[in-house]
Amino acid sequence: MTRPEIQEPRPERYNPHAIEGQWQERWQQSGLYTFDPQAPGQKHYALTMFPYPSGNLHIGHWYATVAPDAHARWMRMRGYNVLFPMGFDSFGLPAENAAIKRGVNPRGWTYENIAHMRGQFGRMGSMIDWTRTFATSDPEYYRWNQWFFTQFFKRGLAYKKGGLVNWCPKDQTVLANEQVVGGACERCGTPVERRNLSQWYLRITDYADELLDFSDTDMPERVRLMQTNWIGKSVGAEVTFSTPAGPETVFTTRPDTLMGATFMVLAPEHAKVKELTTDAQREAVEAYIAAAGRKTDVERQQEGEKTGVFTGSFATHPISGDQLPIWVADYVLVTYGTGSIMAVPAHDERDFAFAKKFELPIQEVIRPEGGEALDVAGSEPYVGEGLIVNSGEFDGLPGGKESIANIVEQLEARGVARAKTTFRLRDWLVGRQRYWGTPIPIIHCEQCGPQPVPDDQLPVRLPDDVEFTPTGQSPLKLDTEWVKATCPNCSGPAERDTDTMDTFVDSSWYMYRYLSPDYGAGPYDPAQRGMMPVDLYTGGIEHAILHLLYSRFWTKVMRDMGLTDQSEPFKRVRNQGMVLAEDGEKMSKSRGNVVDPDDLVAEYGADTVRTYLMFIAPWELGGPWDPKGINGPAKWLSRIWTLYFGGQPDGPRENMTEADLRYAVHSTLKKIDSDFGRMSFNTIVAALMELTNVLVRAGRSDRYGTPAWEEALNMFTLMLAPVVPHIAEELWQGRGGAGSVHLQPWPQVDESAAVRDSVNIGVQVTGKMRGQIEIGKEASQDEALVAAQANPEIAKHLEGKDVVKVIYVPGRILNIVAK
Asked: Where would I find the Leucyl-tRNA synthetase editing domain in this sequence (predicted)?
């Protein structure tokens, strides 16, 4: 193998600013990263969650993008036909609030930001295919949001109903349950209020059971657990009690404790509270309901002293006939189960605390096997399984799952209960009372009721000249001309719906639109359905419940509509951690600790920033930013440049065999392949840095200029390409490589070279490291000791001493104890 000639002389010093811009421009002009669905190779659809166009890509955007970009490049070099697109999640409150602050329409502000951020993505050196980009605020995109909504409406999956909703008083809009965190608005942190409003919902609960099946998607266990808990499947029974207001059905997961029910509790919003409240208790009950209305569901579920009020009425136990007092308490939610519970204080912590406070009876019905009777005067209930007691015919049966089915069957035969499965998950509230979002495509007619906008009238475009300062009602209501409409059913006068959609609708199906962004006959070209599911989807763990759950729901509906063959949108999901400030705090403008990637690129170049972000910490964990840490990657790239273009490395002569060099290269390649598969990016960079040291040593040996040396540099260049694409392109071209380095096939591991017959192990003499020896992998302890004694650096520490003990760990270390 002859040594390739350097095509043009390169400067002695590495200057990223002299090469990165020109390569970015050439890649863009040549269409290097344009995806061709007809190109050879197995498809690989890699997708990173698209950003909100806030104005600037921050360091978190870089962290979320450069590692998946490296992975996509690696897959492409391995022969896959890779699609790696990017767009912008551009509807939503931040743009609207920024526009209000500036006194402008959010459209102009949004699209200026998009143009700026596209330039930033380019300076990152990413392999994004920009021919497929879009923004969710493009009418050509949100037209299909509206089309989906009308299809959902026709299928009974979209509906409007009145009820209690979460209301953010600052943003002046309703919030889905998933958008309330700790009793506050997820976006702005304002405490959330509860209001009675008529709102649009999507029936995600129709798919609750199926959403618990993760067999067709590889998600981190943490994400699966978060979604499972949010869906909250509970298997049990509904039991009916008689009350003065008629039958009242409660849901319980422990029907085996029915005989321990000593009182009933209703949610303050329960429809029967008014009828059940006696005149003597009415004032107290109404005051309590008013106080409960000022709390969020989250606050009501928090641990703390229980509150409640007696209605004055009693329920009749369906088995014993006992009269159970009916209370109202805010720890019971009207949105869970039936909004009422049978309270079993002996075996439920919340019921126990309530009973103790209000001196209500406590009846033990489950006892640990071999245990003693519950001390009702004690400080805690018994919530485990055991034997049923004090329950008549059920006495002696095992409590818990083992007997529940049998007990429910007997209760069903008596007509007082039925088996029931419930879910914590509630239907998705999708209406918003703000301007900058997709208009809901429904026309309201007094004669015909709500009617979907016909397909040929989509999109229903957002008007531009609207006063959108939040008032608590939809800003679109103020545009009376826009509101006027004709009923598509009877042709009579009608009005448009003035709410806009939750922006999570936009991101629930966007991965399909990248497949054919200009397609006009549907949300995407069905000829491209073979590109789904997304093979690797990456983004933050904060989207585990909202976005990921909604996307899974949306794909299942699309499947049932015949729009996709898949039941899951993502084959594999992985989450990155977060880059924190130097002190470990979250970065924020208010704290003044934000790291600007543009400044870093201006000082160090994109490849250095890419390297450091992959090297800083395990990608899935993240970690604090160290402003000094980036100097290491900068020096490493300079060292590589000098290795290639600076002639034979200076320094003392090294002794390295061809087998040594080939082992270092091929074993590193094998490790990098494994690490890319595990998405362990920090160890990939570490392995490349370690190989750089080996190559410098090889350059000081007789290997310099040999075929093994040339093979090593060529393979090293290819290994660098996914991580540091600019310098890798320059190294490849500088060594006479044909075409772009990013079009080259990934090197293959020579397994025979990647395995060594010998190993280097450390040698300690009486606990202190004194050197290394090279011995056979299967060398015995005696052979290792002989090799150590033959090494001059080690032997001098043994002179005049007796070896009293030898500790040998094959392949790792030899410890000689000498006196």
From this structure: 229-411
